[in-house]
Design goal:
Blueprint lengths: L1 H27 L11 E7 L1 E17 L2 E5 L6 E3 L7 E2 L4 E5 L2 H27 L1 H23 L4 H47 L2 E3 L4 E6 L18 E6 L4 E8 H4 L7 E6 L6 E9 L10 H5 L8 E9 L11 E17 L4 E4 L5 H4 L10 E9 L2 E6 L1 E5 L3 E6 L6 E5 L1 H6 L6 E6 L7 E6 L1
Parallel strand pairs: 1-21, 2-22
Antiparallel strand pairs: 1-20, 2-10, 2-14, 3-9, 4-6, 5-8, 6-7, 8-9, 10-13, 11-12, 11-14, 12-13, 14-19, 15-16, 16-17, 18-19
Helix pairs in contact: 2-4, 3-4
Amino acid sequence: MKRFLSALGIFFTVAVVFAVVGGGELLAMLPSFGGGSGGVEVRLEDASVRDVVQTASAPGYIEPMLKVDISAEVSERIVELPFREGQSVRKGDVLVRLDDRDLSARLAAATARLEAERGRLGAEKARLDGPRMQLQTAKSALERQEALFRSGDISRQALEEAQTRVQDIQAGLAASERTIGVIESSVAASAADIERAQRDRERTVLLSPMDGVVIRLNAEVGELVVVGTMNNAGTVIMTVADLSHMRMVAEVAEADIARVQLGQAAEVFVNAYKDQSFQGKVAEIAMDRSNAGRSAALSASGSTGGSGTYKVEIDLTLSEQDHLLSGLAANADIRLATANGVAVPTQAVVERKLDDLPESVRTSTLVDRNRKVASVVFAVKDGMARAVPVRIGQSSLTDTIVLEGLAAGERVVVGPYKALDTLRDGMRVTEASATPEGGTSVEVRIGT
């Protein structure tokens, strides 16, 4: 009797130690004691036929599809800025007025030069009338002298004097005509100066090329604007954009870019709009990798650098109530592929050592004998967890397609993770809470 009581005491002492050290999980592993009256509490879900969508996640920023930087083509000071940042403008509205006094003076000087050159031209042409009449008279006299010379009535000297007279007058006329040509070129140059001065003065008034909103104002009245050159950027006075048509410029990791195609649907999440997402489509894919020049928006949205990225433009579909600002940080989920089949939550697919599985599972054709572990799900039958070997297909962080081994409608253990980690074939389980059946698309983000 004493031996029985001693053994019973030892047994209860060990049981207490198990309960303190291992908790309910260790007790649950004992079929006769685990889980109290019902077994390990687990969450269950029916395997169902549904879509599993793979997506590539990419950070980026929002920008208008159409935006125009307003720069000056003449270097002058700003005298008027009718619109401020955030105000709407219409095509043809005056956006900037520059000081045109110097250009007006230049135009007046060019006009005066043109009038002077035209006066000189007229005077030179008028002076040609006398020499031309003298040339006609000299040519007539030369003809008479030639006739008299042939008849022997005059000497050769008189003939040569008549010839020289004609040549002198012709040379004078040629010189005057060359002078007229020079003056005509000067007149043309003066006219070109006037046209350029008029165009420069017109450029002091900058008009809006489109309907839109002033999204950036970089200068103020009184500042001197600088004209850009090939090596030096000029002054961008302001930027006007059409905010009714927006796009996202996404940085897609090179590991995912091969699967991104034009026209693929995308869901865009803007950091500033926590409870709203926007739909779009891939409109343009860069052919050149870009590593440098990432904006602060990319850092704010979670970009971590590393391998190269490719710019992908996603045109957004916006309603009249949607108002996105240029430069907002965003993330895009680009839908790469969709598979349909019997699916279970990804967490339900676990790996177990072959030695921990029953013989019926180890000998299944779905188990790779060359591996030390096998992929299984725990199906619940008559309140018992049964390890079922499976062959899986397309997977996401939330859902996995089961190609073989499991049928739609079978009840499987999907959590909690702590229970799944210790669950073994043949353990009794009870359902802690029911989850809605599947049937909807489940997405996962892949990439950076």
